[in-house]
Amino acid sequence: MSIRGILSDLATHFEEYVCDALLAFFMLLLFVQILLRQFFLYSIPWGEELATYLFVWFAYLGASVAARMSAHNRVTFQFMFFPPIVRKVSEAFADLLWVAFNLYFVYLSYEFVSRMNPFWKSQTIGVPMKVFYMVLPVAFTLMSIRILWNNYQTLVKGVEIRDPEAEEIEALKKASAAGSGSQA
After folding, report:
1. Distances in Å between the alpha carbon of 62 and those of 33, 45, 119?
2. How far apart are CA 86 and CA 130, in angstroms?
3. What Cα–Cα distance (Å) separates residue 133 from each residue in 59, 98, 103, 119, 120?
4. What angle do the packed helices 47-68 and 3-40 form, to 10 degrees?
5. Contact between 69 and 143 (Cβ < 8 Å)
6. Which residues pair with 121 in a beta bridge?
């Protein structure tokens, strides 16, 4: 694979790779914590706190992954009754409202983080809380980029981006119909 291909894959799946690493690390940390408590009557003093912060980063970056996959929960039932072009424009408008909210939240969260007292540190780790709260502007910025990219793909390039669960449901319906058709 070329350098360009690797960079493209990294840009496409960045949040997934980070989420994978965060999940593996905080699960390992919690597992070690349980083993230490049960068998050695000891616990890592900072383990619970770090696992909590890692989980929060995992959740917010996971929201960005869901945005990339167009897998966020949203109400789109009403769009099924529109002609295809009206449906696309309506969904794009709804996404633009979503991006506007995200960017406003990026502004507010960045303001919040930048005004934090530099002496406000986590209790057991001693890391400035700014580090942990930076997930808010980072994740909402990434989410906005993913939403805009999906709309570019849909409206300009004509690529249909479907929720993976919707694809799975469609495949199950086809399999069910094929199974019931062969029994008749």
Report:
1. 24, 27, 29
2. 43
3. 13, 21, 16, 14, 12
4. 150
5. no
6. 128
Residue listed under structure tokens 């805009």: 148
For residue 15, give both structure tokens. 């949040």
DSSP for 102-136, written as a single string: HHHHHHHHHHHHHTS-TT-B-TTT--BHHHHHTHH
CB 92 within 8 A of CB 155: yes
- Whether residue 159 contacts residue 80, with contact meaning beta carbons closer than 8 Å, is answered with no
pLDDT tens, N- to C-terminus, the chain (184 residues):
799 988 888 888 999 999 999 999 999 999 999 999 999 999 999 999 999 999 999 999 999 999 999 888 777 778 888 998 898 889 999 999 999 999 999 999 999 999 998 889 999 999 999 999 999 999 999 999 999 999 999 899 988 887 777 778 888 888 888 877 666 5
Domain map (residue ranges) of the chain: 3-178
Burial of 64 (0-12, 13-18, 19+ CB in 10 A): buried
CA 126, CA 166: separation in Å to the nearest integer? Answer: 44
pTM of the model: 0.84
